[in-house]
């Protein structure tokens, strides 16, 4: 550990006493912060540890803190509940992929349209899209249920994906419009002169320049749809179409027999590991998205 | 990447003006093409946002069982809200929950920001740790809590017993108060990272020269906080306050999974009440009326936010 910290206005070379004092402060800081960090990590760590205990140990009373033996039994049991883990996992993946692809396509096209073209009703459409932010779908889920019913899209992963896409639009359109506005249009015009259409100019010239924005939009829509709970709960009624979170909650209320905490925690681990990894690897995009969306949106 | 000036020059001679007069460019001259690009957005917004919004307003004035047609009911659904025990309970509980959550998250986030804004080694690690729970889904987080506090073999009960605080399971979800307490610990754990990150970004935007100048003038730490940090953070704090309030007013997942609104309907939130009225009691009209009330509250709060954030541009 380096003791020399930023001491604006002071000297960088410390006297012996100052060094001891600074080291003591450093230890205090790490003790305090370490306890805080542990509080934030322990629930996740505990779920992971429990998930790899043998089923009997994971459900034993009193509980064990650390696994006495390692086993994937909880994961195997999870595979047999309801329609089977594979089905729910596939439903979750299908939903998230649909939402990510749909959100990216719609917001890239619209962002480009808003940034580069003048047309009637432009600010009206942009304003209405941002208005979605003010109306969280918890408040319009009932009419949405009726509208989707008329379109024959209830109890369909596709219909649910459309709803989730709609709620990603304000953030995505806003971000993509700003992304396109921040790159020079001369590049596209050169492409137009070279014989590209406006779509070709977008596809071959500008798209690669707004890739950071696309990654951010994709990341946010993936995490939101992967974690989504209320939407699938309302719009899917057929058990074989449930996503992972719905299946796990059903497990927790004893829908498939006695409540099996080991299996639940195995399911939680499967659900949270992909988003944790995505976050850790794409942290840069995630934080820039949060800041752009929250502070300027 | 570079442009190809030769081609550009050959195409349009007055190219140098383009940067200043974007409207004249070859792209923007075609409004029909622009409409084509925003068409998918327009269709989704119209069908899945504007139409349902209209249906919601209409529905709130109807008697509408889930399986069956609507019959007009005027403002009857709204008039019944004050005498509906479920709704009144839900409104009261949601307000209490919102106030407690906001106070807790604000208080604790300042401590976490102080820790993660340090220039010490490791501060970045702590920052990441505080933020990790934010990407965990609310339902998953609630399931972790559910397993941790269960009466049979929950680790929280085990630790309390071992440390000598309780004799037997504490009953984390047994009374309304206990269930609220347990949910609050979950919510703070899950959502506080967002607030910490946004506050950190807000802090970093404050010019360092201000602090240095203040220090030269002999300002104390408290004075620097009072006269530099707080005024600069005001818009950020206003935004976080509104986000915390609106988010709490819409709480659903954590209560549906962890408490199921119980015990004895003591932890039913507004959205939970709407959900139950529509999909358990099949009364769409009443649920829609309550949705409209919630919607108006949210629009009002967002209006307040716009008003508070106005200063941001004036500065």
TrEMBL record, chain A:
The chain crosses the membrane at residues 29-49, 88-112, 124-151, 157-176, 209-226, 261-282. The keyword Secreted does not apply. GO terms for cellular component: plasma membrane. Keywords: Cell membrane, Membrane, Transmembrane, Transmembrane helix, Transport. The keyword Cell membrane applies. SUPFAM superfamilies: MetI-like. GO terms for biological process: transmembrane transport. It is a multi-pass membrane protein. InterPro entries: MetI-like (IPR000515), MetI-like_sf (IPR035906). It is found in: Cell membrane. Residues 89-282 form the ABC transmembrane type-1 domain. PANTHER family: ABC TRANSPORTER PERMEASE PROTEIN MG189-RELATED-RELATED (PTHR43744), SN-GLYCEROL-3-PHOSPHATE TRANSPORT SYSTEM PERMEASE PROTEIN UGPE (PTHR43744:SF8). Belongs to the binding-protein-dependent transport system permease family. This is Carbohydrate ABC transporter permease.
Automatic annotation (TrEMBL), chain B:
It is a multi-pass membrane protein. Residues 91-305 form the ABC transmembrane type-1 domain. Pfam families: BPD_transp_1. One of its GO terms (biological process) is transmembrane transport. The chain crosses the membrane at residues 33-59, 85-113, 125-148, 179-206, 232-252, 287-309. It is found in: Cell membrane. Its main location: membrane. The keyword NADP does not apply. SUPFAM superfamilies: MetI-like (SSF161098). One of its GO terms (cellular component) is plasma membrane. InterPro entries: MetI-like (IPR000515), MetI-like_sf (IPR035906), UgpAE/MalFG_permease (IPR050809). Keywords: Cell membrane, Membrane, Transmembrane, Transmembrane helix, Transport. Residues 1-25 are annotated as: Disordered. Belongs to the binding-protein-dependent transport system permease family. This is Sugar ABC transporter permease. It comes from Orlajensenia flava.
């Amino acid at each position: 550990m380096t003791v020399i910290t930023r001491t604006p206005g002071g000297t960088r070379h410390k006297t012996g006493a100052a060094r001891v004092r600074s080291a003591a402060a450093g230890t205090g800081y790490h003790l305090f912060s370490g306890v805080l960090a542990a509080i934030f990590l322990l629930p996740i760590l505990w779920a992971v540890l429990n998930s790899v205990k043998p089923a009997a140990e994971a459900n034993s009373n009193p509980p064990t803190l650390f696994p006495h033996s390692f086993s994937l039994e909880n994961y195997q049991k999870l595979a047999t509940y309801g329609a089977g883990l594979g089905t729910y996992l596939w439903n979750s993946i299908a939903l998230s992929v649909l939402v990510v692809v749909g959100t990216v396509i719609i917001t890239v096209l619209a962002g480009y349209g808003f940034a580069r073209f003048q047309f009637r009703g432009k600010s009206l459409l942009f304003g209405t899209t941002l208005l979605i932010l003010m109306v969280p779908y918890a408040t319009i889920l009932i009419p949405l249920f009726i509208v989707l019913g008329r379109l024959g899209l209830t109890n369909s992963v596709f219909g649910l994906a459309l709803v989730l896409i709609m709620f990603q639009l304000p953030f995505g359109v806003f971000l993509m419009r700003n992304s396109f506005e921040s790159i020079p249009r001369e590049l596209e015009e050169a492409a137009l002169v070279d014989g590209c259409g406006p779509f070709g100019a977008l596809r071959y010239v500008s798209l690669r320049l707004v890739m950071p924005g696309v990654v951010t939009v994709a990341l946010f829509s993936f995490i939101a749809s992967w974690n989504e709970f209320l939407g699938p709960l309302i719009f899917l009624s057929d058990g074989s179409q449930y996503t992972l979170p719905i299946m796990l909650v059903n497990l927790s209320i004893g829908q498939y027999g006695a409540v099996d905490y080991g299996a639940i925690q195995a399911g939680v681990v499967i659900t949270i590991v992909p988003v944790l990894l995505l976050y850790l690897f794409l942290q840069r995009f995630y934080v820039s998205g949060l800041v752009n969306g929250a502070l300027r949106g | 990447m570079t442009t190809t000036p030769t081609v550009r020059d050959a195409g349009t001679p007055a190219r140098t003006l383009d940067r200043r007069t974007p409207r004249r460019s070859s792209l923007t001259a075609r409004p029909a093409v622009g409409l084509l690009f925003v068409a998918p957005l327009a269709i989704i917004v119209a069908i899945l946002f504007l139409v349902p919004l209209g249906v919601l307003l209409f529905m709130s004035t109807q008697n509408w069982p889930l399986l069956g047609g609507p019959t007009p009911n005027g403002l009857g659904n709204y008039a019944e809200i004050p005498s509906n025990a479920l709704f009144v309970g839900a409104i009261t509980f949601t307000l209490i929950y919102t106030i407690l959550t906001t106070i807790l998250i604000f208080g604790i986030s300042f401590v976490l920001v102080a820790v993660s804004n340090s220039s010490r080694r490791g501060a970045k690690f702590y920052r990441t740790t505080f933020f990790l729970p934010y990407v965990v889904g609310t339902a998953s987080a609630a399931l972790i809590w559910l397993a941790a506090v269960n009466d049979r073999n929950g680790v929280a009960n085990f630790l309390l017993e071992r440390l000598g605080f309780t004799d037997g399971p504490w009953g984390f979800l047994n009374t309304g108060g206990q269930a609220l307490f347990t949910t609050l610990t979950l919510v703070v754990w899950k959502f506080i990272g967002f607030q910490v990150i946004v506050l950190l970004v807000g802090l970093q935007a404050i010019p360092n020269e201000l602090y240095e100048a203040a220090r030269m003038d002999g300002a104390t730490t408290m004075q620097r906080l009072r006269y530099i940090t707080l005024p600069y953070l005001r818009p950020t704090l206003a935004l976080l306050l509104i986000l915390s309030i609106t988010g709490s007013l819409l709480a659903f997942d954590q209560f549906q999974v962890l408490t199921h609104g119980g015990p004895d309907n003591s932890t039913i939130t507004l959205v939970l009440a709407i959900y139950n009225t529509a999909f358990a009691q099949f009364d769409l009209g009443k649920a829609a009326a309550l949705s409209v009330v919630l919607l108006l509250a949210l629009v009002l709060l967002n209006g307040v936010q716009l008003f508070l954030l106005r200063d941001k541009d004036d500065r």
